[in-house]
Structure formats: structure tokens, C-alpha cells
Amino acid sequence: MLHTLSIGELAERLSTGKLSSVELTRHFLDRIERFNPALNALITVTAEGALADAKAADARLAAGERGPLLGIPLIHKDIFCTEGVKTSCGSKMLDNFVSPYDATVVKRLKAAGVVMLAKANMDEFAMGSSNETSYYGPVKNPWDPTKVPGGSSGGSAAALAARLAPLSTGTDTGGSIRQPAALTGVTGVKPTYGRVSRYGMIAFASSLDQAGVFARSVADAAPVLGAMAGFDPLDSTSVDVPVPDYQAALGLPLKGLKIGLLREFFEGLEPRNAALIQAALKVYKDLGAETREVSLPHLPLSVPTYYVVAPAECSSNLSRFDGVRYGYRCQSPKDLLDLYKRSRGEGFGAEVKRRIMTGTYVLSAGYFDAYYLKAQKVRRLITDDFKAAFAQVDLVIGPTTPTPAFAIGAKIDDPVTMYLNDIYTIGANLAGLPGVSLPCGLIDGLPVGVQLVGPHFSEAKLLNAGHAYQTATDWHKQGPRGYE
Amino acid sequence: MRQLFLREMQRIFSTSTMSLTRQDVEKIAHLARLAITDQEMPVYVGSLSAIVNFVDELSKAQTDRVEPMAHPLEGQHQRLRADVVTETDHHEQYQTNAPAVASGLYVVPRVIE
């Protein structure tokens, strides 16, 4: 049962020659062939490239090289540019786009010896919370195929939950790693803004976007974050702060760690969900952490703030898709304006157009101050709330999502209701903070997550706290039926 | 917090007045260079109005003397690099993704009569 082993166990077998990367890669490619047609978690399966990567990893292993990820298979979200491989970002606009270069994340993981199995399905241009806005159709949640897996990194999360790969990458602009991790019962890590390079990661909202990891445990995620993170001169917002050894940070005692319970997150929270978060808090108390309540009074404004800032940045970023240099072009344009308008009108899906228009509106003359500037000011108030909280506690804790996975089709026609899925995750993006979502229980047979958020560059502390929770509990070991 | 939003949503959807008209949406679509079909238009008038009503919540926040925040990591400077050539010419490779190319140039409809 290779798909149930941890990254540490796999690396041990690879390094002692009990297992080859080719065997391991074939095992996951077989599972992909068997389970993906029903799940639709993947857009492109790169079987040939994967076997070539695996052979190269085996050669490195045979030459005596060792590394925590050498020969380990992984799935990339289709938002990361991969040289010579279709990179669609879930959009008709880029259905024909073959990237001429690798994103920094892809390049670094390749150097670490990772084997790329596939490119994961996602909400179009990462705009969505259910993976229903993808041009390639919705992804099914392995726990219940009538339910969404969350979004926007829904394919990456569902693939992990179904054990189609031991690791996958994602991006998180308003919760797009943490929310699908919670809804599929896997571990999701969103690093500090600037911790991981955005170079070659197709831009949605540049002051919020950040790449991260899905894994079945914090211990599995730690080496991936270590390999991805670090300064990149090709990303102007990459931060030149040394990358600690995240694996070495795991296992430190939690005694004296101060955890703040976010008061606003519990107001109106469904009682069963609240009880699971309280149970997680009890685990932390038993591990020696101190807990107290903290308040972020401006947090209720985070969703409206986000739905001004993110669309504004998206309307600017997505202006590059013009039907001229790459991507979709309409048939027989009558002039240049017609070419721009119809290529974009036909190439983008409904939610992407909605966000571009929202952004265009809030940035337009006469509305800029009332919406965009106002949202930037509220963004500071929210950030200041977090700063005040972190003066009292080391980490804050709360639910990742308001509910478990909802039915496919339930919210897609009502954008505002859909946007409210992200009420607990958006604050961390606005303030640029790292966060993790850990599986913490089931409601009606569906997983829910507990979220930890820390100050800038506190990933080592967050991962240690997450790992301690997973040492004391086994929610992260549970998986959906039918994928054993 | 969730109840607050649900109350707010009831307020938004109970107000039958659309905050944006069809003409407003046509103008926004033109500025965004998006062709919106007649079938799509009413959906956007409705959903964009709902979003604008929703984000109007921000007007309640007291933001006098608050500096707008554009970026989560403040104090970051735009770095300068040495003024040397680091890129080589890849135009042929890049143009394999272009919809129409002739003699190394991108082809678009005639712009100058």
C-alpha cells in the first residue's frame, strides 16, 4: 500500500533501495488511471514525463545522492508554468498554452528530485471556492461525489484525499489552499506572503497570491515547503529572509505556547463545528499550550475588503490576455477592438468576467475612493487587529470554513453566498500571514478543518504546532471510503 | 460573524433596486474590453449589483486618518539589479504560443487605414 506511506517512509525505502522511484511513480499513475476519470481532479496527466523524472531520480539515488523529496511523486496545480507542458489555469483562454519555462516553485522542486505526475484541475484563474468555475468541469469530492472539494485548488486537494499522489501544490489568494484542504480532510499550508516565489505562477491578485502545499500530514508538508521557499530575484515581492529547517522544527514541546481563540470566528458557528474546534483546543491545552480569547474587531469586514482588492488586482493582471501574443483568439475579428473584446469575452468564463468587471468598476473614475481606497484602509485596520492579537499570543486558532463541503451546484448562481465561504480564511491573506488547515473531525461523514494562523514568517512554529496536534490525534489519517 | 453576514445578505437581496443599470454594465464591459452577449447581460446586471451592495458594507468602517495599505509586507523596497544583459532572445519559442505570426511579428487586424 505505497499510497498510505508517509514521505519519510517513502524516502527511507527509496534510499535503502527497497523501492525505486519508477515503481512508486507507476503505482500512482495506475491509481490516477483508475480513479481520476470519476473525480476529474486532473487536467493533464504527464505519465511519460513522470517516468522520465523517476528514472532520473533513481539514477541520482544510485549515485548516492539523498534528499527528503528525491524520487517522490507530486501533482502541481495547473496555475504553475511547467516547461513544455500545457498550463491552462483552468481556463479556455489558456487551453492551448504550452509554457516555455518553469515557475520557480516547479524548478526548485525538480531540483529536489520530485517527480511531476500531473497538473491539477482548479477554479478558472483561481477564482472560485468550489472548483465549479473550471473550464474543464467541476472536481468531485472523494468523500462524496455529489459535493464540491472546495477551491480554488480543488483538484490538488481532491487528488491528495483520493491518494492519487502523496503531495500536491496549490495557491492561496483568499483561502484557496486552506478551504479545500478542510473540505477534503487533508493538511494545507499557506506560507507568509513573499516566502515562496510567485515567478511563473499565473497572477490573480498580486498582493495576496501565495504558493503552498497540500500533504496528508504536517510532517509530509515540511520538506516541501523547505524546498519551495526562499528568495528569488525574479519575483519583486520575494523576501530575502533565510529559510529555517522546517523538519528540524517539528517535535519541539508546546509548553508555554500561547494560542488565541478568535472570538469573531465563533459567533454563529454551527454548534457541531464549534465543538470540534473546542476539542482541538483541548488537545492543545493537554499538550501544554496556554489559551485565551482574542478579538479582531474589523475581521467581519474582511470579505467585502477582499472582494474589492482582489477583483481590482485581477482586472489589472488579466488585461494581459488580449488574443494577440498567446491564448485564445476569436474567429474573424473585424478590427483590433473586436479582437480584444471577443477574445476575452469568449475566452474567459462567467466568474472571471464578473471579477474583472467588479475590479474595473471599483477602480474607475468616481468610484476609486469610495471602494478601492476605502478597502485599502480597512485592510490596514484588519492587519492592525492581527498585530494587536500577536502582541498577546503566538498563534490564533479557529475553524477553516463555516460548513463542511456543500453540494455541487448549490451556490454557483449566487456569487455573494459563494464568497462567504472564505470568511475565515481571507483575513490571513489581507495581512499576508501564514496559516495551516488541519483535519479535525467529521460532520455527517464529511471532514472539517481547524485553522492556525501566525505572524509573518512563523511557519516553523505553525508547522510544529500542527505536527504536535497530529501526533496527538489521528483525524489526518482518515480518508474517504473506496480509495484505500 | 456568519449571522452578521446572513443578515446583511437578506438586506442586500430584499432591496429590489439594482445599484447598477444595464448601461453601467455596458460601460464597464467596454472599459474592461469584454464582449458580453445579450443573454449574459441581465445576469451581470443582477450579480454585479449584488456585489456592489455587498461591498458597500465598507462605508460603515471608520477610516479617518488611516493610511491605505497596498501591500502586506511594508518596508519592502523595489530592488535594483546590475545593469547587464541577463535575457537571451527567445522570440521564436515564445511565438509558438501566438495565434498568428508572420516574419517574427504578431499579426493583428489593420489598425492604420
Task: Describe the protein in words.
The complex is a heterodimer of chains A (484) and B (113). Chain A is an alpha/beta fold and 484 residues long. Chain A has 16 helices and eleven strands. The model of chain A has no long low-confidence stretch (mean pLDDT 97). Chain B is 38% helix and 4% strand. The longest helix of chain B is centred in the middle third of the chain and has 15 residues.
Question: Helix count of chain A?
Answer: 16
The number of helical segments of chain B is: 4
Structural class of chain B: mainly alpha
Q: Give the helix proportion of chain A (percent range).
A: 25-40%
**How many β-strand runs of chain B?**
2
Q: Which strand order do you get reading across the main beta sheet of chain B?
A: 1-2
What is the N-to-C order of secondary-structure elements of chain B (H for helix, E for strand)? HHHHEE
Quaternary organisation of the protein chains = heterodimer
- Catalogue the unreliable spans of chain B: none
CA radius of gyration of chain A = 21 Å
Our estimate of the beta-strand percent of chain B is under 5%
Shape of chain B: flat
* Overall number of strands of chain A: 11
CA-based shape of chain A: globular
How is the biggest beta sheet of chain B arranged?
A: 2 strands, antiparallel
Largest interface: A-B, 84 and 61 residues
Average per-residue pLDDT of chain B, rounded, comes to 87
Mean pLDDT of chain A: 97
